[in-house]
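Quick one, tokens below. Sequence please?
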């Protein structure tokens, strides 16, 4: 009953977005603009894939592997 649904976005998707749009920071509005989520979605960053870009990622939740990969690439994982 109290379960919260999250929209999952993987690291490989973040890397593709960073490469194609030349972004250094990703937040809820950038996910909505690029069609990855709607305004009402709660976003969780998942650890599948590889991240090489230094990004500041703002989302509702992160998996441990995703957070570690973002920080290992020199970026920052900001939890809302």
């Amino acid at each position: 009953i109290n379960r919260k649904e999250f929209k999952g976005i993987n690291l490989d998707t973040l890397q593709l977005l960073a490469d194609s749009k030349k972004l250094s920071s990703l937040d809820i509005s950038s996910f909505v603009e690029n069609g990855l989520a709607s305004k009402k979605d709660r976003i969780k960053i998942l650890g599948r894939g590889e991240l090489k870009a230094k990004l500041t990622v703002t989302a509702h939740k992160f998996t441990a592997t995703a957070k570690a990969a973002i920080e290992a690439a020199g970026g920052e994982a900001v939890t809302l």
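The helical segments are 11-21, 28-33, 64-72. The chain has a mean pLDDT of 91.
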